[in-house]
Fold this sequence. Notes:
This protein is of the alpha+beta class. The protein has helices spanning 5-10, 58-74, 89-92, and strands spanning 18-21, 25-29, 37-43, 82-85, 101-105. Bound molecules: adenosine monophosphate.
Amino acid sequence: MGETIFSKIVRKEIAAAILYEDELALAFRDIHPQAPVHFLVIPKEPISSLDAMTQEQRGLLGHLQWVASHVAREQGLSEGGYRVVTNIGTDGGQSVAHLHYHVLGGRHLSWPPG
Length: 114
Ligand code: AMP
């Protein structure tokens, strides 16, 4: 599975506003923010989407969600709340085939999404 722009961000070949990094995960600001705070949490490993996850990788999913909440707290989103979402495939609106959680906050978010 493939190389996407996010693999280049992991390897620091493309600049990104990185908010958190460890050996498994990276969080960086979305280049087209849809809310006052909008960042992405990705595994460093190039997994195409949530749909490609195996049972053995479920610990990684927990870690990615912890990173999402940790950075959201650092960004001051805990009080007002925020949304964590991952788009999957064509109908899900996924445009980059590297698993990523969007974390959005800093304004009221409507529901349901379009
Ligand atoms: P999705 O449509 O769910 O696949 O989300 C992909 C997200 O990646 C979009 O919100 C884009 O704005 C964001 N994105 C694409 N390229 C970059 C980049 N170079 N740096 C940061 N975010 C990016």
